[in-house]
Amino acid sequence: MRINPLKKNIPGQPEVAFRTGRIDYQFGCIDTLKRELHGTTKESEQLLAQDLAVPNESLKAKGQQPIEAPPANVANQKTSGSGGKVSN
Q1: Cα separation values, 63 from 2, 7, 57, 66, Å
Q2: Tens digits of per-residue pLDDT, 50-80?
Q3: Most buried of 15, 54, 61, 86 (most Cβ within 10 A)?
């Protein structure tokens, strides 16, 4: 039998330390994903603002329809799994 000195047995809640570690890990993952999403959002805005103009000019020169930029708030809309909107 191995004794873990970091885990304290509290009456009624013997696994509090273990569960807290999981929660801290999950919050760390969430924070990381938020930073990555923020960076992706910046890159998308740059693409729409600057890089989309060049292909659109080429398409116009060929007599084709330009690519329309989606609304900026699309990524911020909350939807449920079935495709319906969820109220904020």
Answers
A1: 75, 70, 10, 9
A2: 878 888 899 999 999 988 877 666 555 565 5
A3: 15
